[in-house]
Amino acid sequence: MAANRSSVLTSQKDDFPRWYQDVLEKAELADNGPVRGTMVIRPYAYGLWERMQAEVDARIKATGAENVYLPLFIPQSYLEREAEHVEGFSPELAVVTHAGGKELTEPVVVRPTSETMFGELMSKWIQSHRDLPMLLNQWANVVRWEMRPRLFLRTSEFLWQEGHTAHTSRADAAAYALRIHLDVYRDFLQNILAIPVLVGVKSRRERFAGAINTMTCEAMMGDGKALQMATSHELGQNFATAFDITYTGSAGQVETCWTTSWGASTRMVGGLIMAHGDDQGIRIPPRVAPVQAVVIAVKDDTRTTAAAAQIVESLSGVGVRTRLDARTTQGFGRRATEWELKGVPLRIEVGPRDLDAEQATVVRRDGGDRSAVSLGSIAHRVPLLLEMMHTEMIESGHRRLAARTTDVASVQEALEAAQGGFARIPWEILGEEGETTLNRRAVSVRCLQTVDGSVPTASAADDDLMAIVGRSY
């Protein structure tokens, strides 16, 4: 099996981008769509996205937000009402000029994001301070015409959630945006995807178009590059002014709302692959795995297949997401390699010899450890193993992030450190001039943090901030 595995994927050390493409193909995760830049998400990866969606959605609803759905098409005039926003998205817009065999009176844009549509509707729906805060979220697809597509990471169409809220004060809006950032995104990424993230704010030049503050969760991939996993934006009163989102206060005065937006996308699937994958394929953290354990019947005999089916039933009964592989017309080695590629946390092998010993062989995907577990204790042992594996994946991620993050004291040192990981440099040393120097060498400021690694407040002074810099996807 080892010889077969080594020929399936390009080694990460030899060519990480090629390894990534190999994994997407061999593990049957995604394919290119017929239109350049579009993506087909295959069933196994879509099952993973559904697990992610469910976890994120539950956390969003816990903050009080409700789900809605808005139209795919946006009048072009809506985008033009917030100048900085349309300027930021202009190169990526897909515009429809003809429909039904006729030229449209006004072109419509296929949504790149829905700030402007939410702005128009919030202006209609909000009348009084009693309508606030308005907390909305939608799960949808968006289109941003991508010049250099890469499956899951940058595609012309992708799936995501986008939240939009309106508040009576900047303080209330800022507090809610921060809550989403920490209690939804950071919590999900670290505790469910087992990916440690650095939280902070974007520099002025990296902010979302039209925002007064952008918070980001930055993760380190297996090759040391950064990936932006989720963002949360304070939009100030920019969109509220452009779309006349106002309310009547308790004293009868008309006030302008403060708004936020925040989102995470199928990019998280790519992030999971690159953060946890190895030369045998992907490794899925147990809490998010659509299949936590696969039971493989080694031989095609009634006794073996019946025992394998019984194990599936017992594990399902204690809440383990389990699948039976009884494809005995295919070789065992081929099937085992397939499940390794797909990153299923536990593989449970059952054959005649195992049954004679009243046991099954349990193989961990994270380290490949094999152990014999008695049939009577599998339903107890497997859930414990899954939690142990998840914890160890989190701890491993934190160790890698710490080992590949270097404190530096100059722009040149930051450039050197960013070739293999992250650099951490005082913002008062780097500044916007140093940021420009980094950008010329394809290195960017991923986020600004306080010295203790927390998200800076609006009043934080420059000399209290640390910049995390690195190469990115």
Structure, explained:
The protein is α+β, with helices and mostly antiparallel strands and 473 residues long. It has helices spanning 2-8, 16-26, 43-62, 76-80, 83-89, 115-125, 170-191, 238-242, 267-276, 302-317, 332-342, 352-356, 378-403, 411-417, 427-440; strands spanning 30-32, 39-41, 66-67, 73-75, 94-99, 102-110, 134-143, 157-167, 197-201, 213-220, 226-236, 246-248, 254-256, 258-265, 293-297, 322-325, 346-350, 359-364, 370-374, 405-407, 422-426, 444-450, 465-470. It has a seven-stranded mixed beta sheet, with helices on both faces. The protein has a five-stranded mixed beta sheet with strand order 16-15-17-18-19, with helices on both faces. The protein is globular. The relative contact order is 0.12.
Summed up, what is this model?
The chain has 473 residues and is α+β, with helices and mostly antiparallel strands.
Mean of all residue-level pLDDT scores: 95
Distance between the termini: 33 Å
Number of strands: 23
Output the strand order for the largest sheet: 3-7-8-14-11-10-9
Multimeric state? single chain
Give the helix tally. 15
Residues in helices, as a percent range: 25-40%
Shape: globular
The poorly predicted ranges are 1-6
Structural class estimated from helices and strands: alpha+beta
Rg: 25 Å
* Largest sheet report: 7 strands, mixed
| Percent in strands | 25-35%
